């Protein structure tokens, strides 16, 4: 037969989603009653804010844990802590707040593709830089943990520093950057399994001092593997941009990444078609090296818009300020990226105010 002590012991170990402390530590369990004949447990629990998704998740956890120890049914009533009760925890809550828990979290935008080699990382870094050129506060996570390339593409030679218990991201072209590439030596391969990748990705959100951001972009690995799944579970409100080439096969495979986003309630805000064509500087004639029509067809299939079509063109390299994949603002592709960035901001801001 269940006892009040058993119920309090099990429930007390559950962590409150708002204050990141156990229910026992914050004295959240206000009332407990048990009907022994029916094995029914009733609880009154205090939380920082009622009527939220966090409360629903906490409710599910409590019910699940109590049923494991023999409760047949569970009744829960949630009340809010008084301001006086919350006051002792506010300072520690602010110190532990991170991008996954902050009420002022930025817009998360994942850059995804169905396969490698379509220029997803190139799009990621240039979109991030273009958003910064539009005056936005931008962060970029190189979430392609096996194939990290963002630091080299942006010409970053510095490494993050640690202040206290927080990692300070490296800033370049107005974009705050964090990458697995900062934490390995001599371009060593990363030989990790799924759970370890998930922990590293979580640390990028929780242990990095991002400061105030408008947008945080994530350069995802190609395909629909472990890291992409982790992002979908960690960031339920994340938006996605799908990158493809015009080739029908690339667009077909990219549709899988888009379908995964839609199934996990991520909003696909647009498609970028990279390597759309090559334009001769001599004749101005366009050659569709990788085929034609993949981007518009993919956008139509995913019921989203085509944000832009990027021709094949090499950036103008500056040996003194070397960043081999960043297009200058005056470059033709730099102008296209600015247009894409402007569309992205319009879509995101439209969604906020609607």
What does this structure look like?
With 354 residues, this protein is of the alpha/beta class. It has 2 domains: 4-96, 2-Layer Sandwich (GMP Synthetase, Chain A, domain 3); 107-353, 3-Layer(aba) Sandwich (Rossmann fold), CATH 3.40.50. Helices cover 35% and strands 21% of the residues. The protein has 10 helices and 15 strands. It has helices spanning 4-12, 53-68, 83-96, 120-133, 150-153, 194-206, 226-234, 248-263, 294-301, 332-353; strands spanning 29-35, 40-47, 73-80, 107-113, 138-142, 161-163, 166-168, 170-172, 175-179, 215-219, 239-244, 267-273, 278-279, 286-287, 306-309. The strands form 4 sheets. The protein has an 8-stranded mixed sheet with strand order 8-9-5-10-4-11-12-15, with helices on both faces. The longest helix is centred in the C-terminal third of the chain and has 22 residues, at 332-353. The radius of gyration is 24 Å and the shape is elongated.
- The low-confidence runs, each spanning 5 or more residues with pLDDT under 50, are none
Number of strands: 15
- For the record, the CATH architecture of the largest domain stands as 3-Layer(aba) Sandwich
Cα distance spanning the termini: 52 Å
> CATH homologous superfamily of the largest domain, by name?
P-loop containing nucleotide triphosphate hydrolases
Mean pLDDT, as a whole number?
85
Q: In which order are the strands of the major sheet placed?
A: 8-9-5-10-4-11-12-15
Number of folding domains? Answer: 2
Order of helices and strands: HEEHEHEHEHEEEEHEHEHEEEHEH
For the CA atoms, what is the radius of gyration?
A: 24 Å
Main β-sheet: number of strands, strand sense, barrel status? 8 strands, mixed
Shape: elongated
- CATH names the topology of the largest domain as Rossmann fold
